[in-house]
Design a protein that fits this description.
Distance between the termini: 96 Å
Number of strands: 0
Order of helices and strands: HHHHHH
Helix content: over 70%
Length: 151
């Protein structure tokens, strides 16, 4: 490894390198810029400071999109502000109004009722099939019993 620092700065260099190594290893392959993932890993291992700084600069836009900070290309300020506000609300676990929640619960209730009705029909069909099978087995036993008596 090539080190440009010593002492406390060396610890900082290794900290950034470890962060970047983990970030490269966990990044989606499509999100890795410029060179393949294995190239970034080798670069971070051989040139920890330079490769780490380059990785952070190369993935800045991706990080901003993940955080909801940067406006995507072509977005106007007002629309982007509304979207980022929605992202902040969602991250704060505010999912909607009580009316929206009530409508969702009503839909879930209806779906649950449909599933319960389907289950009741299946159970009735299964009981009917079992009864038909029992009757067929009883007839076969009775028929077999008569054949045995005739012999």
């Amino acid at each position: 490894m090539i080190h440009l620092t010593e002492g406390l700065l060396l610890v900082l260099e290794y900290g950034i390198a470890v962060f970047c190594f983990v970030d490269v290893a966990r990044a989606n392959e499509a999100a890795v810029p410029w060179i393949p993932r294995w190239g970034w890993i080798v670069a971070v291992l051989v040139f920890p400071l330079a490769a780490s700084v380059t990785w952070i600069v190369a993935t800045r836009k991706r990080r901003e999109k993940l955080r909801g900070v940067a406006a995507p290309e072509g977005a106007t300020g007002e629309v982007f502000g509304q979207v980022s506000e929605a992202v902040r609300r969602a991250r704060a676990c505010h999912f909607g109004s009580l009316e929206d929640d009530a409508a969702l619960l009503a839909q879930l209730w209806d779906v649950n009722e449909e599933h319960e009705e389907t289950l009741r029909r299946w159970e009735a069909d299964l009981r009917h099939r079992e009864e038909v099978l029992r009757q067929r087995v009883a007839r076969e036993r009775a028929t077999r019993g008569r054949h045995m008596d005739a012999a």
